[in-house]
Amino acid sequence: MIKKILVSQPRPTTDKSPYYDIEKKYGVECVFRPFFKVEGVTAKDFRQQRINPLNFSAVIFTSRHAIDNFFSICKEMRITIPETMKYFCPIETIALYIQKYVQYRKRKVFFGTTGKPDDLVPLIQKHKTDKYLVPLSSVNNGDIKALLDKCGVFHKECTMYSTVSNDFSDEEKQKFNYDMLLFFSPTGVKALKKNFPAFEQGDIRIGAFGAATAKTVAQEGLRLDFKAPSDKYPSMTSALDAYLKVRANERTSPPDTERKS
What are 85-111's pLDDT values in tens digits? Predict the structure, then answer.
């Protein structure tokens, strides 16, 4: 039975998070504990990349970390982003996060529906004359660059942050007792094995967000129980809800002998 779920992300900043709805709906406990932490590059390091955000008319954000560090760097360098700047995101939840820094205008913010980079292709093709800047982590799979090359648009990728393992304390390791682990990046999966070299999955369920994360789960010799995004479940919470619903139905369904009688 699934009762305690470790979500490898920071605790939601709003009380309206779908995770809290899931806790009430299924009687589970969600514990938020990032497996890695993000460290932004300094303005000095960014300048060495010889990139000026004002030379671009559009920005592609692949994560909230990219948004935070982009605007942080701009603030540190005293760069005022023009209101004409366009923003592209793989999914609406990331797009909505932009309003933390600028006034949200739908005509300037574009997003996909499944969270997959390919969703951006038709949107970008409608804006082929724009120049695209892509803030990324120091470790990335190159998917966005390949996609933009395919679209034939002017683009430049830049490093604005890096991810490093957020090591567990000895006390945390002793209390590590979960029925499910949710991962959102390959770095998080690798951090699990780094902190727990002798980790054995057993009955622990694992959910992964993103194709790269799911692939890393398999590469680390772990069993993947469900993943997102998909056409049916665009977010981790929707996929989690569906998985828990199936498990709940299995518990309440009568045995086969009773159903046949």
Answer: 999 999 888 999 999 998 877 779 999
